[in-house]
Amino acid sequence: MFPERVLSGMRPTGLLHLGHYHGVLKNWVKLQNEFPCLFFVADWHALTTHYETPEVIKENVWDMVIDWLAAGVDPEKATLFIQSKVPEHAELHLLLSMNTPLSWLERVPTYKDQQEKLSDKDLGTYGFLGYPLLQSADILIYRATQVPVGEDQVPHIELTREIARRFNHFYSKEKLLDAKGAEIGRKPILLEPKALLTEASKMPGLDGMKMSKSYQNTLALRETPENISQKIRKMPTDPARVRRTDPGDPAKCPVWQLHEVYSDDNTKQWVQEGCKSAGIGCIQCKEPIIQAVTAELAPMRERAAMYTENPALVRKIIEEGCDRARAMATDTMKDVRKHMGLDYS
Ligand code: SF4
């Protein structure tokens, strides 16, 4: 009844790095060729954790959009927009909050997790408790059929489905009938989305931990070739390789994890044999990684430079995206208001 639509958002809280590329953006680039896609800057979501430092958000919004475009997200294929520029998200969030049981929000696993993880921030706020509901509103307002998520986000999609179901149960009066005229349900006003499970990013950081801004182990999407080379050359290796003649074990080395992402079988074999026999040195072993990362990021740096030099173009892309998104959101809200008895015309 509703067309296929994929929705995904990203919080603008820092420079994007290879972890974002391998974990999210590569998938967006693929999805935009398969479905109508909406990708949004989740600035209101960023405020739930950065309400004391809103300047972080402002600084990062445009850079993040440029990083998306640099990574190959195509505004001709996907709709790119900023959440707060479509205020209907807030209206739907408010209306959904009227009938969402508090316990549904309190039991979202990431609620307590994040509060514990970000213990330096006071997240005992109304906004933070409600952020999964805002996420639901983000999805439901576009009647998105699919939402790409990692395993840990599946409960959020489940919550969104429950919220849609509850809303339809309360407000949909139109019966759906089968061929024989028997009622088989109510015509949905809001659509229950499906989780489009995406594999968690295996992108290791420069220290072997997951690549993340908070671990300071990242390679930014716009890293210069000099920095790429310098950062990879400084990577720690198997501590057993004190001297060049000491053999090592790739299993104990973060550089090997990068070979797993970037190298072909021949190179991997060369690393395994060369490391275990001390036939190669660590700097030598890092060279193919430096080359692979530099080659991967070169076209992105080029595209990013093109957009950085042309901020008016980036703003136009977002403006057009916001208009398109707003038209879809307005459509849904008309329906929602009508069914909730809020159309007074
Ligand atoms: S040779 Fe390569 S895999 Fe072995 S310790 Fe050095 S960098 Fe790591």
In short:
The chain has 345 residues and is mainly α.
**Number of strand elements:** 7
- Looking at the chains present, what oligomeric state does this protein adopt? single chain
Uncertain regions spanning at least 5 consecutive residues: none
Report the portion of residues in β strands: 5-15%
Structural class: mainly alpha
Mean pLDDT: 94
What percentage of residues falls in helices of 4 or more residues?
A: 40-55%
Q: Secondary-structure element order, as H and E? A: EHEHHEHHHHHEHEEEHHHHH
Radius of gyration: 24 Å
Rough outline: elongated
In whole angstroms, the N-to-C terminal distance is: 27 Å
Biggest sheet, spatial arrangement of strands: 1-2-3
Q: What does the largest sheet look like?
A: 3 strands, parallel
**Total helix count?**
14
Which small-molecule ligands are present, each listed once?
iron/sulfur cluster
Note down, in words, how this protein is organized.
- The model has no long low-confidence stretch (mean pLDDT 94).
- The chain is 53% helix and 9% strand.
- The protein contains 14 helices and seven strands.
- α2 runs antiparallel to α3 (54-71), α3 (54-71) crosses α13 and α11 packs across α13 (282-308).
- It has helices at residues 18-31, 43-50, 54-71, 88-99, 102-106, 109-117, 126-129, 131-140, 154-171, 225-233, 254-262, 265-276, 282-308, 311-339, and strands at residues 6-10, 37-41, 78-82, 146-149, 175-177, 183-186, 194-197.
- The chain binds iron/sulfur cluster (SF4).
- Iron/sulfur cluster (SF4) binds next to α11, α12 and α13.
